[in-house]
Amino acid sequence: MTAKKKKAALIAALLAVVMVASGCTTFDNFKNAFFVDKDSTDTIVIGVLEPQSGEYGEKGKAEIEGIELAHDIKGEIGGKEIELIYGDTQSSVYVTESVVNDMVSKNPDVVLGAYGDATTLTASTILEEELIPAITISATNPLITQNSDYYFRMSFTDSLQGDAVAQYMKDGLGQSKAVLMRVDGDEIYNEIIRQFRETFRTLSGDENSVITVSAERDRKNYDEYLEKIKDSGVKAVFAPMSVTDAEKMFQSAEKLGMNDVEFIGPLSWHGDDLKKLHEKFPDLVISAVTDYSETATASPEQEEFVKAYREKYGKDPTEEAARAYDAYMIAVEALERSGGVSGEYLRDEIAATNGYPGVSGTVTFNERGEASKPVSIDKYQLGQLMTVFKSGTVAGEIVEDPVAATVEDAASEEEEAQAGSEAAGDTEEQAGADTPEDGEK
User: What local confidence, expressed as pLDDT, does residue 381 receive?
Assistant: First the structure.
């Protein structure tokens, strides 16, 4: 048992004795007498555990920007300054353990981060042992919150991503068959894949409705795989893979003229990466999962956030920055409610977050410490990023977007008629297409 755990157990025992001995003793009196061991001049410490280099360096920096903006706006609690301390995981599991241990030695009240599932899982074991609550901003592996009572998640899990994509392909796109394009050995997407298969097969009522195409790891040319997908006649492909692998897939799809097939990617494609993919492959239909939609009607909180972010950084915020901003503000509000008490009491206050009006969406943590948010699908249409589907909506419902609607209204009648003709042709081709049974290709 660590010193911090021994202290927590001692305090719990003292609390029981004091409460029995004196019915008029309040929690505040007890807290002031026994628990608060920082004097009034001490700062509140928030650890920022993010990769500033390596594979996820850019994503980590985006999350740091959101945290630092929130810190600019809310930099103290009850007269106590909030200090940010930083730990660079370098996008490495091997580096993370020593970085977290060093951060723990500086006694943070709460930790924000890290980006990346493996590094966050590494951090979770250490932080729970030290009774330090933490909020991951973008990591999606369900084990992070399942295995730790002290870790919370701002985004959704891999299983929710897979479930939402299956709903979109079946109800939003009206597909009875789906292609699952994966990379052999890329295990970080295993839970997304499992949930997608399960949900799509249930919705379609057909155990053979998911056609799996597996690409060899480090394969430079995807022509062979995309030819099989094109021959199948299926018009929707779920591709849980890295953006680097997706680019190889899109090069082959572009070469084969697969402009009538929609490619759906995981959360990691969204944001700047989705924009770059659209710009590089403008004739392909590419969409991605998100819980942060730039096209949705902005709340006053979102408008203020975007304005402040542009003023500080001279650019538009990413979804990582928005979630990081919310994570900081939720942590600060929990610290205020706990009266500056950390450890288990702070963990409980974070867990009590309900209906927080965040800039990345309304946040309520469920019993597993996961933010309950609708999962959206975004894609570019007519040059605009559109939210085309939200999980939990009526089956087949497409979410209207005011920006995109304006663009559509401006389209000529001739263009609309042509689009309708092409759509009809696609429907006929799809209806007559033969698709192989489910299995590895």
Answer: 81
The answer to whether 298 touches 274, Cβ cutoff 8 Å, is no
> What would the pLDDT profile of 108-138 be if each residue is shown by its tens digit?
999 999 998 899 999 999 999 999 999 999 9
Over residues 152-171, the pLDDT tens digits come to 999 888 888 999 999 999 99
Which has more pLDDT, 372 or 296?
A: 372
Neighbouring-strand partners of residue 183 = 215
What are the tokens at 226? 């995309």
Rounded Cα–Cα distance for residues 196 and 91 (Å): 27
* pLDDT mean over 138-146: 89
Residue 31, both tokens: 């807290």
Pick from 193, 379, 375, 403: which is nearest to 277 by CA?
379
Query: DSSP state, 365?
Result: B
Peptide bond before residue 114 is cis, with ω within 30 degrees of 0? yes
Nearest to 204 by CA among 179, 174, 233: 174
CATH code for the structural domain at 36-156+300-363? 3.40.50.2300
- How many C-beta atoms lie closer than 10 Å to residue 227's C-beta? 14
Closest CA to 288 of 248, 336, 240: 240
- Range name among 260-264, 324-328, 348-352, 415-419 with the lowest pLDDT average: 415-419
33: which DSSP letter?
I
pTM of the prediction?
Answer: 0.71
Q: State the average pLDDT over residues 350-365.
A: 92
* Contact in structure between 114 and 60 (CB atoms under 8 Å): yes
Q: How far is CA 60 from CA 99, 105, 309, in A?
A: 15, 22, 16
Say if residues 148 and 208 touch (Cβ distance below 8 Å). no
Nearest alpha-carbon partner for 225 in 267, 258, 259, 191: 258
Distance from C-alpha of 227 to C-alpha of 354, rounded to nearest angstrom:
48
What are the residue boundaries of the structural domains of the chain, listed by start? 10-35, 36-156+300-363, 159-290+375-432
Domains 36-156+300-363 and 159-290+375-432 agree in fold: yes
Residue 386, φ and ψ in degrees, nearest 5 = -125, 140
CA quadruple 189, 190, 193, 198: dihedral positive or negative? Answer: negative
Q: Determine the residue type at 21.
A: A
CATH architecture of the domain 159-290+375-432 equals 3-Layer(aba) Sandwich (3.40)
